[in-house]
Amino acid sequence: MSITQDMVDTYPGNLAPLPLGLFVQCIDACLACGQGCTACADACLAEEELERLTRCIRLNLDCADICAATARVLSRQTDTDLRVTIAQLRACAAACEISAIECESHRHTHCQTCAEACRRCQKACEELLAALG
Amino acid sequence: MSITQDMVDTYPGNLAPLPLGLFVQCIDACLACGQGCTACADACLAEEELERLTRCIRLNLDCADICAATARVLSRQTDTDLRVTIAQLRACAAACEISAIECESHRHTHCQTCAEACRRCQKACEELLAALG
Amino acid sequence: MSITQDMVDTYPGNLAPLPLGLFVQCIDACLACGQGCTACADACLAEEELERLTRCIRLNLDCADICAATARVLSRQTDTDLRVTIAQLRACAAACEISAIECESHRHTHCQTCAEACRRCQKACEELLAALG
Amino acid sequence: MSITQDMVDTYPGNLAPLPLGLFVQCIDACLACGQGCTACADACLAEEELERLTRCIRLNLDCADICAATARVLSRQTDTDLRVTIAQLRACAAACEISAIECESHRHTHCQTCAEACRRCQKACEELLAALG
Question: Of A42, A46, A57, which is closest to C45 when you measure between CB atoms?
Fold first, then answer.
């Protein structure tokens, strides 16, 4: 259902030097990870061993907010200042990695599914960072 | 890439009476519409006839913020209060319809693509509202 | 530290027919309530009786997201479509009232403080809605 | 109207080693800067020389999203992972500085007012980063 690629393809300005495929991949990974982290934090609230999941909830809430901001920054192509893009991508990669490690330590299926989305988003951020030099 | 359905499927609490398929459809439509509106507002900034697009930009920015909040509310299943869900869905359906009408009035391909995402999200909100009675 | 009033005062367009003082009051109330709800949900995670606070956490997270979106919509004055403004204000008033009632039912000081911010935001939304007809 | 200090004061967990006054100052600066950037981007849309302000609009929209995410991360005290906090603070300081420089280059009063809020937020982020080592 994502229209991220279509929106990049119809941008009227000049985008030549940017690795647009990696932007699209990273935007979609941020949206999926942000949604997954929001849902995982919520699913943790319904677990019996809730008191053992407070770190998971907190990190997921942070990761959801950071992924949402990153998706917004990456979705804009007009007069991009790559210093902002790069700094936010670094924050997003860090948040995703730290949430992934926490979620991987819990046996709940929602944590495992969320961890995979965090790892995909971390990887997408790192690949885009590498391409941006 | 969306894991919305997976996160609903792995929620540990009792979700029986809610139309979960419509929740999933609406969350994904909100995410796609919010991304599309962010990108369309940005693409408008790169158009030559920018001064004719200020209403399109403004409505798209509103719609992006409202879709993001709606996707968050719908992604949570613990102790749902449907009065909040319904009120936010109504705001989202209204924002999507008004953005769609504006985008449909412009010939730019990014506006047309964004309008379609707005209409899908409006429809998803309205179908979920109808199911929630 | 808020510059909300200054930003309204320096807006270059024509704002004559809108109740700008109520917009400013409502924006600041949304920002304070959104921050308070984020912090209250987090403080609940540190309480011993965490399992009794899941509804409080969930409603606060919803309210924080809805307040943030509402503050954004109200902060824009260009080509305002009041149908969007009004629908989002109604959702915000509902979310604030329902969070306030929940927070008022808990004895924790952070819940009481958060409830007061929710009530102020609910009132600011309702006053602006009344003024907008 | 901010209740940021009150929410920190009523947090039930152990916050001893963190520079809480700097957290409060930075949260409030993020909220003010995010609101100011949202309003400045909108005010730019109403200026006659709109085509010269596209970079200002774009950077303000980025800064607003990054400030909002940063305020959320800083508002949470449970199980804080400072690696996430620090990475997001660095992104926020960068976004604020780059928006400030752009806004300072325009003569509009809304740009000047927004630039001051960006500089205050940049400084608050940098002071907190310095204190966190």
Answer: A57
**Rounded to whole angstroms, how far apart are CA atoms B102 and D118?**
32
CA distance D93 to chain A (A): 9
Convert the pLDDT of each residue in A1-44 to its tens digit. 799 999 999 999 887 688 999 999 999 999 999 999 999 999 99
Is residue B69 within 8 A of residue C62, CB to CB? The reply is no
The answer to whether D76 faces chain C, any CB pair under 8 Å, is: yes
Cα B102 off chain centre by: 16
Q: What angle do the packed helices D54-75 and A82-104 form, to 10 degrees?
A: 30
How confident is the model over B24-79, as pLDDT tens digits?
999 999 999 999 999 999 999 999 999 999 999 999 999 999 999 999 999 999 99
Domains of chain B, by residue range, sit at 18-132
Give the other-Cβ count within 10 Å of C107's Cβ.
7
Q: How many helices (H) and strands (E) does chain C have?
A: 5, 0
Statement: the pTM of the whole predicted model exceeds 0.95: yes
CA distance C14 to B20: 45
The rounded distance, in Å, linking the Cα atoms of D61 and A71 is 12
**Cβ–Cβ below 8 Å for C61 and B72:** yes
User: Is D84 in contact with A68 (Cβ distance < 8 A)?
Assistant: no
Local confidence band at B81 (pLDDT 50, 70, 90 cut-offs): very high
DSSP assignment of A18-36 equals: S-HHHHHHHHHHHHHHHHH
CB contact (8 A) between residue C11 and residue D68: no
Distance from the Cα of residue C131 to its chain's centroid: 17
**Tens of pLDDT, residues D53-107:** 999 999 999 999 999 999 999 999 999 999 999 999 999 999 999 999 999 999 9
Instruction: Give the Cα separation of A2 and A24 in Å (integer).
Output: 10
pLDDT at site B104: 98
- Which of A54, A80, A91 shows the shortest C-beta gap to D88? A91
- The letter for the amino acid at C127 is E
Rounded-to-integer distance, Cα C58 and Cα C43, Å: 13
Taking the C-alpha atoms of residue D87 and residue A51, their distance in angstroms, rounded to an integer, is 27
CATH topology of domain B18-132: Substrate Binding Domain Of Dnak; Chain:A; Domain 2 (1.20.1270)
Buried b / exposed e along B18-43 (16+ C-beta atoms within 10 A): beeebbbbbbbbbbbbbbbbbbbbbb
Rounded CA separation B5/D64 (Å)? 31
Q: Which two tokens stand for residue B52?
A: 């004719």
Tell me if D41 sits within 8 A of D60, measured CB to CB: yes
